[in-house]
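Hi L.,

As promised, Dolichyldiphosphatase:
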Amino acid sequence: MEDYAPLASLSLTHVHYNPADRISYLCAWLALVPQALCVIYATLIWSNREIEIMLMFTGQMACEGLNWVLKRYIKEERPREMHGKGYGMPSSHAQFVTFFSLTLTLFLLFRHVPHPTETRTPFTLFQRILLSVVAIISAAAVAASRIYLNYHTPKQVMVGCIAGAMFALAWFGFTTGLRQTGWVEWGLDLGIARLFRIRDLVVQEDLVDSGWARWEERRLRMQTAGLWTQNGEGRKSK
């Protein structure tokens, strides 16, 4: 029988868990949250071209780069129960979700100043606080899952959370400086930014509001003119 080289596992999506433990099964799904967030980042950047989302994603990747450096500088092993590979200090999952949740919270509470339109009432301050709390609790669940699955020690997860929080605060301050000094506006005027239709609306509008408002205005105009059918499609006038 022909010999084959041993197969490798794609560690980005490979998670060990106890199939007899429902909590362990849930934690295995929580371990995929960073990958899911990267897909969401890419989707939003492609579909909305918002500079704020691009800045946040850039910070997220820089935070991951910092984690890579810290792991190879500290060189602390994972728990003995862990069968995987790689260093464990600090936890990359904990650092990733902490950066994301805290950056989202800072944006919603200190940078996002939504204005109501004729078609939509934006989130109130209470709703934005509630969303921020949900994001932080979700991040805590992901971080705790790394301990439950024996991928990291509590200390490694705690250091990951601290590193993610510190980098989130630093990145938010850095991007605030870029806005206040006019660098963001300068970047949006560049030819490549205009070529790719990069915009800066989400600071003052809900993410979907501008497109929704245009659609509602068009729909109302066509209804007024009698050019809108019941199934939502325009019809030609005779």
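Residues 208-238 form one domain.

Thanks again for sending the construct details.

K.
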